[in-house]
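Notes from hallway chat w/ T.B., transcribed later so I don't forget. T.B. wanted the structure written out for a chain they're using in a teaching module, and asked if we could keep both sequence and structure tokens in one place. Agreed to drop them here.
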Amino acid sequence: MGTNAGIFAAQTVHLQSLLPADYEWVFIDGPTECDAAPGVAAFFSPPYLCWYTTPTTAKMDFAHHLISSVIERNGPFDAVMGFSQSLDFGIDARKYFGLRGIQRPSKPGCPTTVPAYLVTDPAYLEADNEQDESSSSSSSDDDSQPFRKRAHPTFYQMYHFSVDTVRIQIPTVHIYGRQDKWRLHSKDLVSLCPKNLATVFEHDGGHEIPKSASEDICDAIETPVAGIHF
């Protein structure tokens, strides 16, 4: 969120140079303009793009449709790579994860309390016009509230391994930093994948693609990709 296809290509150039030369890379832009990601504006020019500004059903459906159309027009592809928000839309999850139209059976005795790190800032979940309204109605000098006030509660429906039995039945690679503030979310995604299909590498950094870990990252990427061709 807050980069673009050219920026992602530049951020991964060290990986591309280490991976097999016959890999063909296709980078695509998100459809929506937004603020630059932290540290990006100092090195890269706009536009700064994302797949959605708020995770409404309409915006997520549009992003899924865009990715599906790229796959149908330019595919087939052997693998899809994403970073941060773009990971959500590296493929159409409902089609390629086998989640389209399925029921969501819950585990017996599953937790009823949402972990604190999964409680999302309501400002992110509100529609754009709701953000504008709540921003104008809230006190500008009150910094004591961690979340923006709003008239109606808004919730973000997501899959979680502790309550859902569905699993992602394709080979996956998970790379995240030990210092990443989204580390627990990344680990939750790993838990939605069968252990025999998931390859995991944790580096020492934060929310980034560290050049110092390039060889280890490439080894992780090649593990499932090599199996595709046998």
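Follow-up for T.B.: The two ends are 35 Å apart (CA to CA). Might be a good example for the class.
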